[in-house]
Specification:
This protein is α/β, with parallel strands linked by helices. It is built from 19 helices and 24 strands. The chain is globular, with a radius of gyration of 26 Å.
Length: 529
């Protein structure tokens, strides 16, 4: 029996329209579907401009989480809201045929204000604001947030001359005002007007189903735009526009891009074309052109004069690209607070199939693979903690029977569901006592295999540090050797957070299991402080 495809969407009228479009197209292909609404941070926090929230993927994070937790099978996004790098385990399955990609101006009154110095325009987009001020430098741009209908209502109830909207949103809902002006001079956001369908990378059935909705030309064009954005390292805090489209007669892809100062006082533009099918370097060539014309310096101008307001410390070394995800107002220091040494696991461990195996960390997975090839590993049922560990196991060893958020949840599951009351636990010489103690109390026999050693390498950190990034319970143990707990603990997941809560008053937990998500957590925390 074919499964019912659960379609995840944001909780807004436009998002539901987009989800219903995907639903109709899937059902036309013979698939059964169900729509599931998920609230996003961008829908909840409406009192700040998007660029001030400092979060990449503000409208997509909760849908990503629902995908990874198997609450939904696919997520439907306005593609311009999707970060250029997707979370691990999630893939772009389809891009629907693009609608109107233009920005439009909805007028409050007449067009007379264009020639006047004191016009007032509303938008929540930094890109639209910068382009408007570049063209009309004496005008004032005010912030406008909310769903499409609430923004139209705010325009009606305020003394503004007009507000800028994406044409596709108003047209899809059938509420584009008759007098709205097409802003053909304004270069849209990368992928504006396109709908993207995302799903889990390892869900072959869903990937196959949703790929049937893909429009190749749209996929190519928005891919170029998003690559251009990614190469410039721009996100919600950089005014970047990009547009690629196929000229049908010549089958050439025309591209134009723009980078501006936030106040619109400076801009760099680029326009190039390439034959469809020979467009591989179009985005890179255009991004290089912008950079060579002073693009990096222009972006830095907005940050010049920024002083360090907050200092954080990472208990794991970060790459330079990861550090750049933080604004200049946040200084990040780092070192490895734990070091891992893999043990040589005796060959006799793998002589026979092991029925029940428990692995609670990525280090546990890597230590097994350090001693045995995939073909030598004989596990029947694998139980683990954390999505990162699960992904590594399924990519390197085999199918995971059950994944828990933390050790306690795993212990409870095993005590209730394990038929053969015996497990083999691949662990470190330093490990949490929750799992062994709980299982012992439930008369489950545990055979521990010390697969690796965890060596603590603590550093005494400066009193100026306000927050610490933790990526494992062992990292916390190492930190406590030389430091106090009068700081905010930023934790990568539930297991690490459970330990942190025993010592730290302020603990913040990331939803997605990645360093990048922890860094976004830091940005958002200090934006609100």
């Amino acid at each position: 029996m074919q499964k019912i495809i659960k379609i995840g969407t944001r909780d807004s009228q436009l998002a539901f329209w987009q989800a219903n479009k995907v639903r109709k197209e899937l059902e036309a292909l013979g698939y059964e579907t169900e729509i599931v609404s998920i609230k996003s941070t961008g829908d909840i926090v409406l009192d700040k401009p998007l660029y001030e929230l400092g979060i990449t993927g503000i409208f997509t994070k909760n849908l990503d989480l629902a995908l990874l937790e198997n609450t939904i099978d696919i997520a439907v996004h306005s593609m311009k809201d999707v970060p250029t790098v997707l979370p691990k385990g999630i893939v772009q399955a389809a891009v629907l045929k693009r609608a109107n990609y233009n920005d439009i101006l909805v007028l409050k009154g007449t067009e007379e204000f264009f020639g006047q110095p004191n016009g007032i325009i509303a938008t929540g987009s930094l890109r639209r604001k910068a382009q408007w001020l570049n063209r009309y430098p004496t005008h004032k741009v005010v912030d406008l947030r909310g769903n499409v209908n609430s923004r139209l209502e705010k325009l009606e109830n305020n003394d503004w001359d007009g507000a800028v909207f994406a044409a596709a949103g108003l047209e899809r809902l059938g509420i584009r005002p008759a007098g709205a002006i097409n802003l053909s001079w304004m270069i849209p956001a990368p992928a504006q007007g396109a709908i993207m369908v995302a799903c889990r990378e390892n869900d072959a059935e869903i990937v196959e189903a949703t790929q049937k909705l893909n429009d190749y030309e749209t996929q190519v064009c928005v891919g170029i735009e998003r690559e251009f954005l990614n190469l410039l390292e721009g996100g919600c805090t950089a005014p970047i526009g990009a547009l690629a489209y196929v000229e049908q007669k010549t089958q050439e892809i025309n591209f134009k891009g723009i980078l501006l100062k936030k106040d619109g006082s400076k801009k760099i533009t680029v326009a190039k074309n390439a034959p469809l099918g020979r467009h591989r370097y179009l985005a890179k060539d255009c991004a290089d052109f912008i950079i060579n014309k002073g693009g990096k310096e222009l972006m830095l101008e907005d940050e010049n004069g920024s002083v360090v307001k907050h200092t954080i410390y990472s208990t794991k070394k970060l790459s330079e690209s990861q550090k750049k995800l933080l604004p200049r107002t946040i200084e990040v220091l780092d070192s490895d607070f734990i070091k891992i040494r893999f043990n040589r696991i005796p060959p006799k461990v793998m002589k026979e199939e092991i029925e029940n195996v428990v692995i609670t960390s990525q280090n546990g997975v890597e230590s097994i693979l350090n001693s045995f090839t995939r073909n030598e590993i004989k596990f029947k049922n694998i139980f683990c903690v954390g999505r990162r560990t699960k992904n590594l196991i399924e990519n390197s060893i085999g199918k995971v029977t059950f994944t828990a958020k933390n050790a306690k949840q795993l212990a409870e599951y095993l005590s209730e569901n394990l038929k053969n009351k015996e497990i083999t636990y691949f662990c470190s010489d330093i490990r949490m006592e929750i799992l062994p103690a709980y299982l012992h109390a439930k008369n489950i026999e545990m055979n521990e295999v010390e697969a690796y050693k965890t060596m603590l390498s603590p550093v005494k950190i400066d009193d100026a540090v306000e927050g610490v990034l933790f990526f494992s319970p062992s990292g916390i143990e190492s930190y406590l050797k030389k430091n106090d707990t009068n700081r905010t603990a930023f934790c990568i997941g539930e297991s690490t957070a459970d330990v942190a809560k025993k010592y730290f008053k302020n603990v913040v937990i990331s939803n997605l299991p990645s360093v990048e998500d922890v860094l976004e957590l830091v940005k958002n925390h200090f934006k609100q402080s």
